[in-house]
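Bench log, entry 3. Co-assembly request; chain sequences pasted below exactly as received.
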Amino acid sequence: MPSIVELTQSLVTGVGIGLIYGLIAIGFSVIYNASGIVNFAQGVFVMLGGMFAHSILTRYGLPIWLSAIIATILVAAVGVLVQIFVINPRWRRNAPLFAIILATLAVQLLIEQIVILTLGDQPRTYPEFTSGGPLKLGPIAIPYQLFWVLGVGAILVFALTQFFNRTPMGRALRACAQNREAAALLGIPVERMLIVAFALSAGLGAIAGILITPTQYTAYLIGTPFGINGFIAAIIGGFGSPVAGLVGGIFLGITQSEAIVFFGAGFRNIISLSLLLIVLMFFPKGLFGGFAKKA
Amino acid sequence: MAADTTNLLTVRDLAAHYGHIEALRPTSLNGGPGEFVTILGPNGAGKTTLLRAITRLIPSSGKVEFKGQDVTKFKTNELAGLGIIMVMEGRGLFSDMSVKENLQIGAYKLPGSQADKDRQLDKVFTLFPRLKERLTQTASSMSGGEQQMLAVGRALMADPKLLILDEPSLGLAPRVATEILSTLGSLNKEGLGILLVEQKAPLALKLAQRVYILSSGSVRAELPTHEIKSHHDLAKYYFA
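Structure output for the full assembly:
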């Protein structure tokens, strides 16, 4: 039986990784709600965020905050390109949704290969944003980077909630999610809204990647596990509001972390996938119900 | 063919297919500025298809002009900017959003300041006072009649020049349907052009100046409403 200290320490770790899953889940939800598309390239945006930030940091010697901003913008631009060159042509031809979803999977593999060819296959990392640490609370160690993840996560969720509820563009995105034809009839440019959704979603993925890289590492292959876990978090949250995505992520992160303490690292995915099945059995609409509303 | 500048809306030989099925045969119609035009016809006549083709929700052949400008190649959202707004069949409300949010989205293309949008909101509240009482309620929690009021109110938030409505009385109690259609009549008297598709012929005929009768995907007749004296007259065209 693990000790209280081990449990608490894993709780801290779980919250940290869960917040990252949450940000990825919000990215999934933004695109899904605007279009019905599950973007399986979401994980690759996480990988690109860390890779771009590392490259800018090491090649040009820019401060981390500036590298992070530039990397986020670049990844958002990649998201826009994916929408314009991969999604939109199929969207306009009324391609079946599963064909578009498959195209996003192809994008993930394509970008991974491009990264191997241009940036290499070696893992890379950079220092935490605040040096020193971790913060010691008795036997519990809290890395400073966790406070960055917490702070940035909270700010982003607040900003996104305000954006979706209080700005014309945010409301227009929600309108497209609920009834694309009615939205278009009122003058909302639905295709342009989809570009905004991809930019936003890619930017969120990039921020998640930039935040997590100092505590782990980034490499061309991290997109898939982060994408899968973010997708699970989105389903648990119910593909709904930003808060729902974040709660789904924290729930998943804590469960995985505690599963490692109780049963060992090999059980991490078994426990998280079992959790997904249980949640879907008792809450088929996700914890916050947005999934079924859309479906 | 020269552009028609006297009409608000001119539709020439508009035809649409669903796959191999011809849903709308080449159809022409027009509506003058401030005119109330009704399209009548039995189920499956192609009325909704015609409206969806005019608003570019479905691909079609033929030509659509608005105030003499060819808008055939325009996208649906661009038509709203010109002043063409449609209330679709089934209302098309954003059901998880509040009444206020639905109305705010209605003003998406309305030019001007927030004060202009607030003035437009006041106009809508004058027409449909019940919406003001339901402002924070979600659209899905309202009654059918209130939802239709919201759908029309939301369309009016865009300050349209031509309001297109697809069966606004569908599923409503006769009293509520009459109330909503009467409001449309008042708006028309203030100069708003209206193109109405309706199955409740008596109500529509009271308000419209001109009527098109559509059957089996094509226009069977175009006539001033005062020439239609009875249901018998209509049936003659429906089944001609």
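Residues 4-35 of chain A form the longest helix (32 residues). The interface with chain B takes residues 168, 171-172, 174-175, 178-179, 181-190, 293 of chain A (CB under 8 Å).
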